[in-house]
Amino acid sequence: MKTNKIILLAAALSFQFSWSQFAKIVDKDGYVNLRKEADGKSDIVGKINSDEILYLFSPEDNKNWLNADYTDKNGKNLSGYIHSSRVKYIESYRSVPVVSINENKAVFNSKNITVTIESEPFNYKENKKYFSTTDYKDYKVEDKFKGQQIWGTDGTIPQTHYKSISVKMGGKTLLIPSKEIENLFNINTESAACYFDSEHETLYINMVNSDGAGGYAVLFTIEKGVFKGKTLIIPF
Question: Which residue from 182, 185, 210, 212 puts its CA 20 to 30 A from 105's CA?
Answer without folding.
Answer: 212
